Amino acid sequence: MKKKLIAALLIGATVLPALQGCFPVVAAGVTTGVLAAVDRRTLGTQTEDEAIEWKASGRLKDKFGNNTHINFTSFNRKVLMTGEAPSEEAKAEIERISASVSNVQGVYNHIRVAAPSSFADRSNDAFISSKIKTRSLDNGKFSPVHVKVVTEAGVAYLMGLVTEAEADAAISVARTTAGVKKVVNLFEIVTPAEARALDLAQKSNNKAPPADTDSQQKP
């Protein structure tokens, strides 16, 4: 039962952002909130990553309107840009927009110069990401909640704070998933000891009692 629940949450977190407008925003929020509790990033960093994505998307729309299809994925303050831009000049300008957002510490520019992809293509990419996440559950060598998967035009991008062994296992799963044309490794490697420390820190934070907000006692 627990495995099925994790699978549903992971697939939801992967598919919902790719199909914006097709699902209630509250569903994505609940899914993200549950997975945040086991993320190796601090809650503060997760919040900053989400803010980076929203700010970059907003600035992109102000500059280009609806003439581009760009996805911003921020993990540990590193921003992956995927999608399609109309020209090399636009591609470079979008990178400058992303890099100018506060708290961004690095940019991976994987934008293609091409016409915007179709809804069918984006749906297929979301399906590929969901298959990678589902197959990761059965691997046993890493936790899929520690791996962020973004698929664009059949290319699977992998992000996360993982050990070398976890990275190798995740890359192997992605490479052998039907529909994947290429795997791009964007992992940040940590030592096994560092990974354990990050996991223990999250467990400790989750067990911490809620703050007492009723500080004033009635007589």
What does this structure look like?
This protein is an alpha/beta fold. The protein folds into 2 domains: 1-37 and 118-202, no CATH class; 42-116, 2-Layer Sandwich (Histidine-containing Protein, Chain: A), CATH 3.30.1340.30. It is 50% helix and 19% strand. It contains 7 helices and 8 strands, in the order αααββαβαβββαββα. It has helices at residues 2-18, 25-36, 43-64, 88-99, 119-137, 164-175, 192-207; strands spanning 69-75, 78-85, 106-113, 148-152, 155-159, 161-162, 182-185, 188-189. The strands form 3 sheets. It has a 3-stranded mixed β-sheet. A 3-stranded mixed β-sheet has the order 4-5-7. Strands 6-8 form a two-stranded parallel sheet. Strand 4 and strand 5 form a beta hairpin. It is globular. The chain starts with a helix and ends in a 12-residue tail after the last helix. Residues 20-31 and 215-219 have low confidence and may be disordered.
Properties at a glance:
219 residues; Histidine-containing Protein, Chain: A; 3-stranded mixed beta sheet; 7 helices; 8 strands; globular; disordered C terminus
Strand fraction: 15-25%
Q: Unreliable runs, pLDDT <50, ≥5 residues?
A: 20-31, 215-219
Helix content: 40-55%
Could you tell me the radius of gyration in angstroms? 18 Å
Q: Look at the helices and sheets and give the structural class.
A: alpha/beta
Please identify the oligomeric state: single chain
Order of helices and strands: HHHEEHEHEEEHEEH
Give the overall average pLDDT. Answer: 86
Q: What is the count of helical runs?
A: 7
- List how many beta strands DSSP finds: 8
Q: Report the end-to-end length measured between terminal Cα atoms.
A: 48 Å
Compute the number of structural domains: 2
Neighbour order of strands in the largest sheet:
1-2-3
| Major sheet description | 3 strands, mixed
Shape: globular
